[in-house]
Amino acid sequence: MAEKSRTRMIRASFATEQSVYGVILVSGMIVVSGSYRSTSWQVFWSVLITVGVFWLAHVYAGTVAHHGLDHGRILGIRESFREAVAQSWGLLASALIPSLILLLGATQVVPDYVAIWAALWSGVLVLAVLGYVAFLRRGAPIWIRLIGAVTTAAFGLIMMLMKAIIH
After folding, report:
1. Which distant-in-sequence residues (6+ apart) come within 8 Å of 90 by Cβ?
2. 110, 123, 92: which is closest to 39 by C-alpha?
3. Which end of the chain is less congested by CB atoms within 10 angstroms, N or C?
C-alpha cells in the first residue's frame, strides 16, 4: 500500500504548476548567479538555498491559506501542513536534475561553463517533458502534446536567451 501511495504522490507532483514554476525558478537562479566568473559550486549553493527558501515559503503559505475552512470543511493545522507539503514536492523535485549537473562542474568532472549551460539545457528538456505529460494526462492528441511541450520548453529557452544576453 505504501508503494502505491508513493507512486501516486510522485505522479501527482510531476506535471504540476509547482514543477513548472520550480524549473523556471532554478533556470532563473542559474542565469543570475552563473555570471562569467561564477563557479558551478557557487551556482549550486545559490540554487539550493533559493529553492529551499521558496519551498518553505510555499509550504507555509499553503498551510496558512488552507488552515481552517477549506472547500466547505474544517482543516486542522497538521492536515493543512500535510496537504501543503504534498502539493509542493514538484518545486523541490524540479531542482534535482540541474543541481546534479551543477555538481558535475563543482567536482570538476566537467568545466564550470559546461555544467552551467548543461543545467540550463536540462531545464528546457524537463519543461518540454512537463508540458507533454500535462497534455498526455488530458488525453490530448499528439500534435497538442507536442505544442504543449514546445510552449512549456520556450520558458527555459527564454531563460537561456537571457543568460546569453546578460553574460
Report:
1. 13, 14, 16, 17, 18, 19, 22
2. 110
3. N
Q: How confident is the model at residue 32 (pLDDT cuts 50, 70, 90)?
A: confident
d(CA 80, CA 142): 37
- Give the position of cell 510531476: 14
**Euclidean distance between CA atoms 142 and 87, whole angstroms:** 28
Residue 33: its pLDDT value, please? 84
Q: Is the pLDDT of residue 9 over 70?
A: no
**Run of H or E including 70:** strand 68-70
- Beta-carbon contacts of 1 under 8 Å, excluding residues fewer than 6 positions away, are none
Instruction: Report residue 25: phi and psi, to 5°.
Output: -60, -50
Contacts of 99 (CB under 8 A, 6+ apart): 26, 44, 47, 48, 119
